[in-house]
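Technical note accompanying the year-one report. For the benefit of new consortium partners, we illustrate the data format agreed upon in the data management plan: each record pairs a sequence with a structure-token string. No post-processing was applied to the example shown here.
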Amino acid sequence: MSLNRLNAPDLSSTPSTSEVIVIHLREAIISGRLEEGEPVRQDDIAQMFNVSKIPVREALKRLEAEGLVQFRRHKGAVVTKISEPELAQMFEVRVLLEVQAVRLALPHMTEETFERAEQICKEFMAESDVGRWAQLNWEFHSCLYESAKRPFLVKLIRSIHDKVERYLRLQLSLSDGKDRADREHRAIIEACRKGDADKAADLVEEHLSGVFQTLHEHLPNIPSVD
């Protein structure tokens, strides 16, 4: 029998069971449906997805590497808590990395880069789904930084973004969070378009520092260091 008669699908692009579980658990954590400190029991997840505990364990290990869950003795996996000092350090590192990223990227940005960034801004303002806001927020930043041709740097920035995304969703949903983000994003684009690296770097730093300051003011329930 000729194999080409089978019309078989390409399974190389099909997500594995553990990847599907990761996607659903990550979204539940980031959206707040799974709260900080809440246990993520392997038996319950396996039953929910009707699978063995093996892919569940693999999924939880990936989420642990992303900083979204942690394994505790006698408790298993729980949703990671981020204290205010830890959140401050994450934003501090974000500032260091993203200021460097925009400086490295700016000489290589093109009109296509700016048009794409502006299109993301338009999609961002037209979108009503808070979860989509956070995704578009990342797309905006990565659109600029990818011009630096430093994939490892962008990956580091993305890893921090993923850890704090649950807080970014809250910040963007505050009264003027979305409008403020749009104004600041467009100012960054304008500085980049003018080729002003110092201005662009300053605006990125002010933008990120402002996000943390808003979180500091509006989220008093972020846990303190034990």
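Partners are asked to follow this layout when depositing records. Residues 151-173 form the longest helix (23 residues).
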